[in-house]
Design brief:
Helices cover 38% and strands 16% of the residues. With 238 residues, it is an alpha/beta fold.
């Protein structure tokens, strides 16, 4: 899937007032994704969320453009990434996850920088930059010139990034990218992920996560795996 939908939302205050109370009715942990275009915006969002109950953690989306640095993404350079994480860490009492961008030269350096800045966990990775154009009209098929590529096509690429990140840091890594089957989940665990996220599959099947949980249990029974810890970081490299 190639999308250019942006990060549309109701705003943090409306989220706290209207959406968070409804989410509290579900028997699961709620993680709020946080983004901004300046370091101060990240801090301000977290400060509002800190006044609310019902959240388990924050996930910083650092793939946003820093308008004070000429539009460079916070996650594109270790120093920028550490700067925003340091500020967020000072403002947050809850666990802080950081969602890394795959559109970098060396994800390990950025992972280590945000770990040192106070991240409690990492999510790897966001979407890959891509394009789609119509040769007849000579225009982009998207709402902007570029968009974010996700889904099964990116799994081999992100699997490698998760593997490299897990070997570079000492905090948990959540893998995401092309998770559609129980085997996909297992593969991310084998290379070191502590958990996975499911995104694009939910657009095809809103019950994808339920199906994956049930399917993973069945897969483990068939493979005679009785504890998921047996899979984690079990890759044989020789």
């Amino acid at each position: 899937m190639l999308n250019a939908v942006g990060l549309q939302n109701v705003g943090v205050r409306a989220f706290v007032a209207e959406k968070l109370p409804k989410l509290g009715g579900y028997r699961t942990q709620i993680v709020a994704n946080v983004f901004g275009h300046t370091v101060q915006e990240y801090v301000e969002v977290i400060q509002v969320l800190e006044t609310a109950e019902g959240l388990a953690a924050y996930e910083l989306n650092i793939s946003c453009p820093n308008v004070k640095r000429g539009g460079a993404q916070f996650g594109s350079e270790a120093g920028l990434a550490a700067e925003v994480v340091t500020a967020a860490r000072k403002a947050a009492r809850r666990p802080l996850w950081v969602k890394l961008s795959p559109n970098v030269t060396d994800i390990r350096a950025i992972a280590q920088a945000v770990e040192s800045a106070g991240a409690d966990a990492l999510t790897v990775a966001n979407t890959y930059a891509g394009m789609s154009v119509d040769a007849r009209t000579q225009k982009s098929r998207l709402g902007s010139l570029t968009g974010g590529l996700s889904g099964p096509a990116i799994k081999p690429l992100t699997l490698r990034l998760v593997y490299e990140t897990c070997r570079a840091v000492n905090i948990p890594v959540v893998g995401l990218g092309g998770v559609e089957t129980p085997e996909d989940v297992a593969e991310y665990l084998v290379v070191g992920a502590a958990a996975v996220q499911v995104g694009t599959a939910s657009f095809v099947d809103p019950k994808a996560t339920e199906r994956l949980v049930e399917g993973l249990e069945k897969w483990c029974m068939e493979e005679k795996i009785f504890d998921l810890k047996e899979l984690r970081s079990s890759l044989k490299e020789d």
